[in-house]
Amino acid sequence: LRDGAAGLEVLMLHRDRDLSFAGGMWVFPGGRIDPADHPDPTDHPDPSGRPDGTPDLEAAARRAAVREAAEEAGLSIDPGQLRRWSHWTPPPESPKRFSTAFYVAPLPPDAAEVVIDDGEIRDHRWLTPAEVLELRDAGEVGLGPPTFITLSQLVDHARVEQALGHADALAAAGTVEHFATRIVVDGDRIVAMYHGDSGYETGDATSHGARHRLVMGPAWTYERHP
Length: 226
Fold this sequence. Notes:
Shape: globular
């Protein structure tokens, strides 16, 4: 994230259209955890990197995030500046299963210009979250549901400091959200429902009550209210 003339801006990367996963989509820097991202066993007396014997996936995810930002955008990000924003898992029927940590981080004041790899990534733009959403509605960019919802959340923050403060508050309260997705078809719309939605457990998108869902029709709408 960086502060621009119009407020908070987010770095968006355009994936090559021929990629098998999210081809042609506009995304945040990111990718999978590689074996080398796991903490070095020599850095800790326990081989897993944690005293309880479980893999330190958080440390590996942070290393992966920093590495991917360097590989895809040429940016050097301090891992200590990463704040967990959310966590995502797709619906059970998804052909590709993933468990993904989303982080926010400030662009370092002395950061170099963005340099894309021109392989997986074909273009980049710094935009406000509202601008990205407007481009999606106009059919000029393609977004995945997690990206759309994250941008919808970031719209509420005018400056980077505010977004980072919000992430710090989530971590302090232990309320970083896990979006476990349930997909249903409702007429000509696809509805992705999340925890707290009245129809989440039953898969009934027409149920009355609380809403926590992304409605994907001609336009996309993120609905969240009691």
